[in-house]
What does this fold into?
Amino acid sequence: MSESTRDRGTFTTNQIEWRLWLIRLLSLAGMAVSAYLTWAHLARQSVACGGSQGCDIVQQSVYSEVAGIPVALLGLMAYTALFALTLLRGHVPAPWQDYVPLAIFGISLIGMLYSAYLTYLELFVIYAICRWCVSSAIIITVIFALSLPDLNAEVDLP
Amino acid sequence: MTSSKKKKRRSARQKRKGISTAHILIVAGAAVLVVGLLVILNTNRSQATMTDPITYETGVTLEGEPYKGSPDAPLQLVEYSDFLCGHCGNFADTIEVIGPDYVETGELQVIFRNYAFLAPESIEAAQAVECALDQGADKFWLYHDLLFANRGTGISAYSNSRLKAYARDIGLDTRAFNQCLDSGVKLEAVQADKAEGESQGVQATPTWFINGQMVRGGVSETELRQTLDSLLTQVP
It folds into this structure.
């Protein structure tokens, strides 16, 4: 990434960098939330929910697992992958550079759509709101939004 | 800067614009497919229509609660369950697995109580098992097992029509069952069960009482066996 990119008034290296940093931080936050929920689900522990029973109701519901895998664990895997991808950016050979923002876009899109479905289940099927799950839905939506500009970014490839 | 240089730079810029719309669309399409698959896995699980036959003593307590195992058993387990609660289903499976060693040997009596609190479907399912109980304690346990076997078979796992279909599957008198379910005659009993649970400190499911001692949450088969074995050594 050279100075010339910055001069052109398109997305600068700095702008891409801060978005990456933000995605990295949000992925870490998402990892923390989903790791906590995964642990609570597997250890059958009650979830701290600010005085509400919503988290336990959602976590105990039949929708908290897909084919035997806790949904929270799927989230943990997705956030971990996103975090790893932000570290990879800039460290992969030129022909593969494009795949990093593309992968971040794809994974966060899956996460956002699936979170939307889960939020629908909470509101209209389980009739309980799990605040941790909602916070994860917000995190993944922000990551998705942050992933978009990078798809069009003009970057000097090494 | 000459115009040819400008042109050159423009084309170089174009080249650097790496991610094509086609690539983005392919990834977006794949993402939608993955989510679709996850949703299908979550809502379209295979439906059970048969469960294991009843091989143990069943009956109804003086308070009208269904039980399995001998009323004279040294150990008594009272469980509060919601049919929509995944851990309740897992715990019911665990009790089923240890059944031959404890329930059928006369060492453990299991009493079921509804604690329907998760969703309107929970209350529907709870009323349905009460209706099944009207046709006999063994029918209750068959119906109970079938409901749990179908947990998570979609949003409508405990819809009115599915609840009636389960009753038909296990050979209940469907006319009496349907009438019982549709009339809402069991609603009061279901609410009374929950109130009874609350008065005993139940807040979530599964919560169970083993010889009067409250345990919150399900346990593994090993843990349950250990608990029962250690209690059995204390019984004269």
User: Anything to note?
Assistant: DSSP finds nine helices and six strands in chain B. Residues 5-16 of chain B have pLDDT under 50 and may be disordered. The interface with chain A takes residues 13, 16-19, 23-24, 27-28, 30-32, 34-35, 38-39, 41-42, 84-89, 117-120, 151-152, 155, 157, 203-205, 216-218 of chain B (CB under 8 Å).
